[in-house]
Design goal:
The protein is α/β, with parallel strands linked by helices and 129 residues long. 32% of the residues lie in helices and 25% in strands. The radius of gyration is 14 Å and the shape is globular. It starts with a strand and ends in a 26-residue tail after the last helix.
């Protein structure tokens, strides 16, 4: 069983547990800034301890959305000492196939997942209100 995190779409979070037979992933409306709280509420700390690893969609996606999901996945993997796999958005469309690739060793765990953005972040220009 793996924790699956996808924040590549702005304003939506796909989160849940995936395994060989079951893909219990739900989509939640909201900003990805509250992702860790959502993980705690939806998955729980006890089940988090039992997962084999964490699979996160690294992108492509908007700067803020992807950054939050990838940061949370990297943090959880490091703190819980779990395997970490980053995938492209296209790979995450079929979760059953994705889980098969993980199980068969086609996707190798890594120490760190880097985000993939659709465009460069624009954090230097002041906001116009």
């Amino acid at each position: 069983m793996w924790l699956f995190i996808d924040t590549s779409a702005h304003g939506a979070i796909r989160l849940g547990l995936i395994s060989g037979e079951r893909q219990n992933v739900k989509t939640f409306a909201g900003r990805s800034g509250g992702l860790l709280t959502l993980v705690q509420k939806q998955v729980g700390l006890a089940r988090l301890q039992r997962v084999q690893g964490i699979c996160v969609v690294a992108g492509p996606g908007s700067f803020s959305a992807v950054r939050s999901g990838v940061l949370a996945a990297n943090l959880l993997a490091r703190l819980l000492k779990k395997k970490l796999i980053g995938v492209y958005l296209e790979q995450a469309q079929n979760l059953k196939q994705l889980m098969a690739q993980i199980t068969q060793g086609e996707l190798a765990p890594t120490d760190f997942v880097a985000p993939i953005y659709t465009s460069e972040p624009n954090i230097t220009r002041p906001r116009i209100e």
